[in-house]
Specification:
Distance between the termini: 27 Å
CATH superfamily: Vaccinia Virus protein VP39
Largest sheet: 7 strands, mixed
Structural class: alpha/beta
Number of helices: 6
Order of helices and strands: EEHHEEHEHEHEEHEEE
CATH architecture: 3-Layer(aba) Sandwich
Helix content: 10-25%
CATH topology: Rossmann fold
Strand content: 25-35%
């Protein structure tokens, strides 16, 4: 993915001093507002913090230039290397289910273009993101830096293994399908934290939530979805 020209940053007067809102631009703001109203609110996404993040993050700057006219349409888009940027609705649903708080540290597995990490960064204290495709990791890193997301760090590596040296995490979001909930990621989940991951085969998966409580793990599903598969040594057996 080519790196976009830097979008203008909006400076806000807060408490008598200037603060920079990362990733904020008025460019195509009306399309984002329409996207939130018709694709998210109309389908039941209610968390206002999530809705505001989706209104703010310039999705069109996280897709290749030849895909930008479709950036706010209701569907995933290719970003190269056999990967996609997820449908806006599923980004919002997974973020709402994860429910990151302002003091939380979140792990984003499958950086892709960096869009999901940018949404999480507006809601959490710190986001660590991991991507197995070096070219995608680098382009996402550059775009997030260009847009001023100082609370996101992108790593190149196998997302199945997570980032154990930085654990535990208050939330873990996996933006790729897995045959089961990755055990290494469960081990990195803090008490009170949630993990969201699409679980199933290479066709349709079930969006699966796991929460670590004081007494163990609670697991439930939130409906069907379709993601590209996790890639890496422990993702899917050869042949799916």
């Amino acid at each position: 993915m080519s790196t976009a020209r830097a979008a203008p940053l909006v400076w806000l007067l807060i408490g008598g001093s200037l603060a920079c809102e990362p990733g904020t631009t008025t460019e195509r703001a009306a399309e984002r507002t329409r996207m939130v109203r018709t694709q998210l609110e109309a389908r039941g996404v209610r968390d206002e913090r999530v809705l505001e993040a989706m209104r703010a993050v310039p999705r069109h700057l996280f897709v290749p230039e030849d895909q930008r006219e479709a950036a706010y349409e209701d569907g995933p888009l290719p970003i190269g290397h056999g990967q996609t940027i997820s449908q806006p609705y599923i980004v919002a649903v997974m973020t709402e289910l994860l429910a990151p708080g302002p003091d939380d540290v979140v792990l984003d597995v499958g950086t892709g273009s960096g869009y999901q990490a940018a949404v999480l960064a507006r809601l959490a204290k710190r986001v660590y993101s991991i991507e197995i495709v070096p070219e995608l990791a680098q382009s996402a890193r550059e775009q997030l830096e260009t847009l001023g997301y100082t609370n996101v760090e992108v790593f190149t590596g196998d997302g199945w293994a997570g980032l154990p040296k930085l654990a535990p995490f208050d939330g873990i979001l996996v933006a790729a399908a897995a045959p089961d909930v990755p055990a290494p990621l469960l081990a990195q989940l803090a008490v009170g934290g949630r993990l969201a991951v699409p679980v199933g085969g290479l066709g349709i998966q079930m969006l699966t939530l796991v929460e670590r409580t004081d007494t163990g793990l609670e697991r439930w599903t939130e409906g069907g979805c379709r993601f590209v598969p996790l890639i890496g040594r422990h993702a899917f057996p050869e042949g799916g």
